[in-house]
Design a protein that fits this description.
- Two copies of one chain form a homodimer.
- Chain A is α+β, with helices and mostly antiparallel strands.
- Chain A has two domains: about 270 residues, L-amino peptidase D-ALA esterase/amidase (4-Layer Sandwich); about 120 residues, ArgJ beta chain, C-terminal domain (Ubiquitin-like (UB roll)).
- In chain A, about 35% of the residues lie in helices and about 30% in strands.
- In chain A, strands 1, 2, 3, 4, 5, 6, 7, 8 and 9 form a nine-stranded mixed β-sheet that branches. In chain A, strands 13-12-11-14-10-15 form a six-stranded mixed β-sheet.
- In chain A, a hairpin with a 2-residue loop joins strand 11 and strand 12.
- In chain A, helix 2 runs parallel beside helix 3 and helix 7 packs across helix 9.
- The first copy, chain A, starts with a strand and ends with a helix.
- About 0% of the residues of chain A have low confidence.
- The interface between A and B is large, with 65 and 66 residues.
Chain lengths: ~400, ~400
């Protein structure tokens, strides 16, 4: 397994493009296509929000009912959420337009939107965008990068990544593009992550894999149930690597699972580190929890704590806020028998042990918190399970971005 | 029932004081006493955080086991949380010192702390502070105000309030002092609220009343289970109004309940409106929910949403963020059959109805959001229950305060 250059066009048979369609933003790419030469099996997980965006409803239906998919059209600027029946028609028309140009059935075209909730999509501009996308799509690294750039909203840089692994003597490649950025409070920024692979794998096996993977990757930057109206994580596999089918429980499965995890963990961290206004990536590792789920709950609680985030921004080693966030997480632990420490820049500083703060060098701790990546470790000493969650610091810039996002 | 001037010293027989003890802050009052001439029955609710501050442990024990209480000592600057056995000894010693000077049993003295998690209390300075408090305590409006000022941390002004009502021909008075302020994310700012009354009421009846009241007052500015290590709401009643005992279910009970609700709702709103860095009080009213608890969950979700708070700060009528926050609350509703509107400054603006945004005047909406009090109404049209929650906007100042609170 190795990291390779590129993104969604790294696997065999995938084409992409990103174009300017002026959906909301001017002078930037704001529509993207991902297309496969061959039909793909697909699996995905979507927002748990009661209010689901129209494209989420369309995609969920396709993944449940369509035998295969072959293309994905994404727009930014407008989320097509809170738009009722008319919004759903816009998503279906988007798929229909693209399908006609690509000579596919409508049921083979996924759609995705991100941006402001409320307005309807400007279908005239969407149509022009689709025409450009279909004309320009290509199996090149540049076109993958164009697509990754086009799906951004307030992200500061595109997020693409690719990994190659060996499955039964064949090279299987996985490539991804993702966007996030309203992630400093991960509960409301839309997360979109699209993963393409040339692996031969059944829909059922892929589906199981995706549901398992997401628990330790994207869900560890997004508190469960606190998701936006548009969150979508979709994996499509076109089988062009011609490996022997990856069967659940096999050694191939484990290898593919590891590769997929690497891709998604990388993307999840990249999303957290590029949270709106973020200066630093915060990683929280919980060690020795009694159950995996409790480890996840504790880790997520820390990286979701505004006061912890603000303390990291201020380079203030205020471990009390971490202890407090662990305490209100709902997962059991004994504050009288545990440790909290910071890691970063090659240093490790113990802050709290068995019920009491520990003397530490404030200047050294402050310097550690000034690193671009800060790791908070909580060892709860109860069992054998661990989990990692990712977030970022809370800055003035976050308030600025969100005080004036829509207008 | 009428609002009267004053705070905790408004009811008969209560004395208070606030003094400078230099616990952490210099040149400001940072210790307070509330004392009753006669023994009091007491009831209270405390943080649900797994990590409980030492004073919370002490007070919980007293309320469970002590037949009466007669005094309360509060310090700010240091929370006495995350301080283990030694911290508990500090709280007990505080009670012991005060008890000796007041000729009370140690078990009649409640203690409360708020401030930084981690450090131990400087007991030498606490002792000097107690001596001053006992020497200066008085049954005057000024001493009540001094105590209300002394319990503040980052609050911008003291929060006291008093109400008088008639119970069986006698005037019963209720007075309160509260502090909050880390409330823009209500989950982590310490909330302290102390209510004194001269009512004759049994401990059991008072306890039931407090537990009912808190659900619609303080818990509506603080998401359940997301509480600081020190949150405390305590009511003490000394019986000096000499009313006939207030019995559960009686008309007197209803009258007293209404008066207590008025006091606590006022204090809760004052805490929310004075959230750290806040420019505006946000009130969210959920109408026609199927159950009371679902109404509360929906209302709390909106006032806890960072993106909604930031939008109010930016005077941006971004109703999509409100819809989104309702959607991830976990409480059921149908986005296709509901309304969202703003109220404020005498105006009412419909934003969303039955699945779609409604045309509205952006300038008018922006002007409404510039008011010091903004009301968001969500009518979910499912049943007969409603609830109100209070929060505040998210501002640059919040990040500033919390990026540099401890250092």
């Amino acid at each position: 397994m190795k990291i390779i250059p590129g993104g969604v066009t790294a696997p065999k048979g995938f084409e992409a493009a990103g174009v300017e369609a002026a959906i909301k933003y001017q002078n930037r790419k704001d529509m993207a296509i991902l297309y496969s030469e061959k039909p793909c099996v697909a699996a995905g997980v979507f927002t748990k929000n009661t209010v689901k965006a129209a494209p989420v409803k369309w995609d969920r239906k396709l993944l449940d009912e369509s035998p295969y998919v072959q293309a994905l059209i994404v727009n930014t600027g407008i989320a097509n959420a809170g738009t009722g029946e008319e919004g759903l028609r816009c998503s279906m028309d988007t798929a229909k337009e693209a399908a006609a140009l690509l000579s596919l059935p409508q049921s083979a075209v996924l759609v995705s939107s991100t941006g402001v909730i409320g307005p309807l999509l400007p279908m005239d501009r969407i149509r022009v965008g689709i025409q450009k996308l279909v004309a320009q799509k290509a199996h090149t690294p540049e076109s993958g990068s164009d697509a990754a750039a086009a799906i951004m909203t307030t992200d500061t840089h595109p997020k693409e990544f690719a990994v190659a692994c060996e499955i039964g003597g064949k090279t299987v490649t996985i490539g991804a593009m993702s966007k996030g950025s309203g992630m400093i409070h991960p509960n409301m920024g839309t997360l979109l992550s699209f993963v393409a692979t040339d692996a031969v794998i059944s829909k059922e096996t892929l589906d199981a894999l995706v549901r398992e993977d997401v628990k330790d990757t994207y869900n560890m930057i997004s508190v469960d149930g606190d998701t936006s109206t548009n969150d979508s994580f979709i994996v499509i596999a076109n089988g062009m690597a011609e490996n022997e089918e990856i069967l659940s429980g096999s050694a191939d499965y484990e290898e593919f699972k590891k590769a997929l995890r690497l891709v998604n963990e990388h993307q999840a961290k990249a999303l957290a580190g590029d949270g709106e206004g973020a200066d630093a990536l915060i990683e929280c590792v919980v060690l020795h929890a009694d159950t995996k789920e409790n480890a996840r709950i504790l880790a997520r609680s820390v990286i979701s704590s505004s006061l912890t985030k603000a303390a990291v921004f201020g380079h203030d080693a205020n471990w009390g806020r971490i202890l407090c966030a662990l305490g209100y997480s709902g997962a059991p632990f004994d504050p009288e028998s545990m440790e909290i420490f910071f890691e970063g820049g090659g240093r490790r500083i113990l802050l709290y042990k068995d019920g009491r703060g520990v003397d530490f060098d404030e200047d050294e701790a402050s310097a550690l918190l000034a690193e671009p990546e800060v790791r908070i470790v909580a060892d709860v000493k109860r069992g054998g399970e661990s989990a990692t969650a990712w977030g970022c610091d809370l800055t003035y810039e976050y308030v600025k971005i969100n005080g004036d996002y829509r207008s």
